[in-house]
Amino acid sequence: MAADPFLKPGLHQAEDILKAHGVDAYYRSAAERTGDSHVVIDGRKVLMAGSGDYLGLSTHPKVTEAAVAALRRFGTGVAGSRVLNGSLDLHAELEGRMAAFLGQEAAAVTAVGFLANLALSALLGREDTAFVDARNHASLVDATRLGWGKVRSYRDLTHLRSRLEAAPADGGRLIITDGAFSMEGDVADLPGLRSLADSYGAKLIVDSAHDMGVLGPDGAGLASVHGVSVDLVTGSLSKAFGSVGGVLAGPSSYVRYLRSNARSVLFSTAVPPASVAATLAALAIIMAEPARRLRALELAEGLHNGLRGLGYDTRPSTTPIAPVRFPSLAQAGAFWAGLFEAGVFTNLVGPPAAADPMIRLALTANHDDTHLATVLSAFDEVGRRLGVERQPDLPPVVLTR
Predict the structure, then answer these.
(1) pLDDT band at 10, cuts 50/70/90?
(2) What mean pLDDT is predicted for residues 382-388?
(3) Which residues are paired to 311 by β-bridges?
(4) Which among 37, 139, 182, 317 is annotated as catalytic?
(5) Among this protein's residues, is 210 annotated catalytic?
(6) Closest Cα partner for 272 from 93, 79, 56, 53?
(7) Which string of DSSP letters, residue by residue, matches 263-329?
(8) Which of 210, 304, 367, 371 is catalytic?
(9) Of 257, 234, 287, 221, nearest to 112 (Cα)?
(10) What is the pLDDT of residues 288-336, one digit of tens each?
(11) Which of 268, 275, 389, 399 has its CA 20 to 30 A from that of 291?
(12) Which band of pLDDT confidence, cut at 50, 70 and 90, is reported for residue 20?
């Protein structure tokens, strides 16, 4: 008898486990957002402490006004791919400004960040090899699956070196990594990866979805923190830029190749004009108001070290992403539910998004010290009530900046 393709394991199984314990954590719908600090769910106003809108720009008046103006001028969408009828002056302007912001020659924008990463599949011919961090985002995993080349995952620099040494001498080599890892919040060792790439003739590609706009002296991402050159940057415009879209940036010839050969670029509709205009406005704010980025990092450091002071380890993260691990999904779910009842909305994460069940938190530049205190108080109260084991004397975290 043939197997039922709809009975494979997945998130629905985690949902079943959680619901058996009275926890309903996924696909919760918000009826309202209030300046990104709170959301209304099931008629209750709760503090949003899980958003990826790190700089709080999705509700900034200049960003929303720019989106509305573009909506009135161009309509809701362009009804076509960029290569044919879907290009606007707005798209070209955003690509030029994003390239300059990221210190690259050229950029291409895509409808969503996932598509920007899927475009990398066009780089993997049958003789090529992709060396991928084992914790890369799902979009990078899918990109390498779609390509024709070989895929070799690595755990650390030592493991990567051994993989590179064992790889065939012919064919292209790509080292592909997240900049800041979206669940654990730690960052890639870009200086070490750059050194290995140069030693073994590989190209270095970095997905900066969670560090672009947040890290670096001007917010240009992890590469700018270390002054490391990368061969191609990808990213999402739905995080620090508070909009929707993806970006590929690098040498003009590399970007042109991907615009001409990547199926996710060629065969997908262009970013809607309102989203492009919103991103342009957000980029202008990021460049003109560094205090916003510094405030987000200050709050993040307070969140990390406040949680650590309560005995909740947030390592290995050194970014605004604060993960707290639990021994089981059921315990993590009970803690999530307790936080929700206390008026704090967080992210309950487990496999396949993360190896270990965790509560994932992030505050934005729109939060204040009172919001931070609310989150920490809720963690303390819920942890005491559930009898969660804590770790004493955790050292403070210094964030990557």
Answers:
(1) confident
(2) 97
(3) none
(4) 182
(5) yes
(6) 79
(7) HHHHTSBPPPHHHHHHHHHHHHHHHH-HHHHHHHHHHHHHHHHHHHHTT---TT--SS-EEEE-SSH
(8) 210
(9) 234
(10) 999 999 999 999 999 999 999 999 999 999 999 999 999 999 999 999 9
(11) 275
(12) confident
For residues 219-245, one letter each, b for 16 or more C-beta atoms within 10 angstroms of the residue's C-beta and e for the rest, the string is bbbbbbbeebebbbbbbbbbbbbbbbb
| Residue in 91, 239, 304, 367 annotated catalytic | 239
Instruction: Give the per-residue pLDDT at 100.
Output: 98
Using a pLDDT cut of 70, give the percent of the chain over it.
Answer: 100
Residue 308: its pLDDT value, please? 98
DSSP string, 123-190: G--TT-EEEEETT--HHHHHHHHHSSSEEEEESSHHHHHHHHHHS-SSS-EEEEEESB-TTT--B--H
Which conformational region is residue 147 in: left (phi greater than 0), alpha (psi within -120 to 50 degrees), or beta? beta
pTM of the model: 0.95
Let me know if 203 is a catalytic residue. no
45 a catalytic residue: no
Average of per-residue pLDDT values in the chain: 96
C-alpha torsion sign, points 36, 99, 66, 284: positive
Residue with the two structure tokens 């919040």: 185
